[in-house]
Design goal:
about 5% strand; about 325 residues; 3-stranded antiparallel sheet; mainly alpha; 5 strands; about 60% helix
């Protein structure tokens, strides 16, 4: 049986943990909690029940509003696991948060449109206000594309061509063009893997073993990894996901897909698998020539096809890209 003072300390820690997990730590609350901890040491005995009741009411209100499924001890243990990692930030999967709270949209209004593989970022210093943020991998990867593309626009906007532009400036331009290409394919693969992950999470009880293996890149028969090629992912992942959503998603003949897996991929592979050896056509320059011959136009075309593809898939599986992928921008929107 806890003493009244120990009960106040316990409920204050619980309120702190509850607000931490719901990103509700702000300056007034931090001050209030600090006062509660001081009161547990210094206040008169008859003043303590009021502190306890107020803090318990605060915890109950937050639990009710956020649909919290955690009891007191679970709340305290999970919070300790997160802020016990040291000073910095800790990410927790969205699908894990969904197991803890039934209405986390109260914290992040866009919550229903955020993919399950997103990370909710927690600042682990309990003396500072919460810093609400969510990390979506493909959004961060597209940011690389956007940053590089802005540099391309800046460097190529001088009205010069590769013969008249200063050599160092031209080399920088080519470097950013290469970054655009490779970053866009990282983003595409990240998006497709996230799409597959969401399907596995949502339909894990009814998912066919073969579909599960494709989406998780696993061989259940041999119990080992079985990588799925990008060319297959870009058509099969949306098709599999669509099947379980009762939607027909067939992009095998789509113009965006055709560009991405042919012209675009040839460009990407020449950079990713750099080699001085002869290419299939016997060109002595081979892939090395790609270091200096990528054009702004071909990069813009790749970017346009890739953005269009992701937007199409989002719509095909029943989502609104402006909500589910607000980070997705066409080239002209990135200026």
């Amino acid at each position: 049986m806890r003493s009244t003072r120990d009960e106040l300390r316990y409920v204050a820690r619980l309120a702190q943990a509850t607000r931490f997990l719901t990103q509700y730590l702000d300056e007034p609350i931090l001050e209030l909690l600090g006062g509660a901890f001081i009161a547990a040491d210094r206040a008169r005995e008859e003043e303590l029940p009021k502190f306890i009741a107020d803090l318990r009411a605060d915890v109950d209100d937050i639990r009710r509003d956020t649909g919290c499924r955690l009891n007191d001890e679970q709340t305290l243990r999970i919070a300790r696991m997160i802020f016990g990692r040291g000073r910095g930030f800790v990410g927790v999967w969205k699908y894990v948060i969904d197991a803890w709270f039934g209405n986390y949209a109260l914290v992040f209004p866009r919550w229903p449109f955020i993919p399950p593989h997103a990370l909710v970022m927690f600042k682990t210093d309990l003396t500072l206000p919460s810093q609400s943020s969510i990390l979506v991998p493909e959004s961060e990867l597209f940011l690389e594309v956007a940053v590089a593309w802005r540099q391309v626009r800046s460097l190529a906007g001088d009205g010069l061509d590769f013969m008249t532009r200063p050599a160092e400036r031209q080399r920088e331009l080519q470097a950013y063009l290469r970054i655009v290409v490779t970053a866009m394919y990282r983003c595409l693969e990240g998006y497709l893997n996230g799409l597959g992950f969401g399907c596995v999470r949502e339909f894990h009880r009814t998912l066919d073993v073969k579909d599960h293996d494709v989406l998780t890149e696993w061989d259940s028969t041999r119990n080992r990894r079985a990588f799925v090629g990008f060319e297959r992912k870009i058509t099969d992942y949306p098709k599999i996901v669509g099947r379980y959503l009762k939607k027909d998603v067939d992009v095998s003949q789509d113009v965006d897909v055709q560009f991405i897996v042919t012209t675009g991929k040839d460009l990407r592979d020449s950079l990713t698998h750099m080699s001085p050896y002869l290419n299939n056509e016997g060109d002595i320059a081979g892939k090395v020539a790609r270091l200096t011959t990528i054009s702004v136009l071909i990069c813009e075309e790749l970017l346009r096809h890739a953005v269009s593809y992701i937007s199409k898939i989002e719509k095909a599986v029943g989502r609104d890209p402006s909500r589910s992928a607000p980070w997705l921008k066409f080239p002209e929107e990135l200026a």
